[in-house]
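Minutes, project huddle
Topic: does the predicted pose make sense with heme C bound?
PN asked that the exact inputs be recorded in the minutes so nobody has to dig through chat later. Recorded below.
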Amino acid sequence: MRKLTTLGLILCLTGCDGTENNTTTASPEMPRFDATDLIVGRSTWMGTCRNCHLTGVSGAPAVADYKAWRARIDKGEQALYSSALNGIRDGAGDTRMPPRGGNDRLTDEQVKRAVDYMIASVRHFNRS
Ligand code: HEC
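Predicted holo structure (C-alpha cells), as shared on screen:
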C-alpha cells in the first residue's frame, strides 16, 4: 500500500491540477459481483491488473476514470480482450501495456474474465 500511495503522490505532483477530483490518484475499494465469471475475473485482476489499473500507473487507464475508459469500452469487448492478451505498443514499438499484464501464467480465459471484471468495475464506479 505504501508503494501505491507514493506512486499516487508522484502522479499527483505531475498530473493534478487541483481543480477537480482526479480519480487516477485515488485507490478505490474494488467492487464484488455475484456472477461466477466476475468472481474469477476479480481474483486475476487483483493479482495482476491491479498493479497498474487501480490508480493508473505508467499511463494505464485507472479503473475509476470513466473518461479514460469510455472510448475503449466503445471498441467492444473483443477488441479489449485482444489488447489485454497481446499487449499494446506505442508508435515507437515500446511496450505500453504488457501482454497478459506481464503474467505469462494466465490463460486466455483468465485474462478475458479479468477484462470483464474491469469493464464491470468501470461501470460500477461511473454509477456510484
Ligand atoms: C504494467 C502495467 C499494466 C498491467 C500490469 C496491466 N495493464 Fe492493462 N494497460 C496498461 C496501459 C499502460 C494501458 C494503456 C495502453 C495504451 O492505450 O496506450 C492499458 C490498457 C488496458 C486495456 C485497454 C485496451 C484498449 O484497447 O483500449 C485493457 C482492456 C487492459 N489494459 C486490461 C488489462 C488486464 C486484463 C490486465 C491484467 C491481466 C492488465 N491490463 C494489466 C498497463 C497495464
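Observations noted during the meeting:
- Residues 30-127 form a domain with the Cytochrome Bc1 Complex; Chain D, domain 2 fold (CATH 1.10.760.10).
- Helices lie at 2-15, 36-53, 66-74, 77-86, 108-127.
No decisions taken; revisit at the next huddle.
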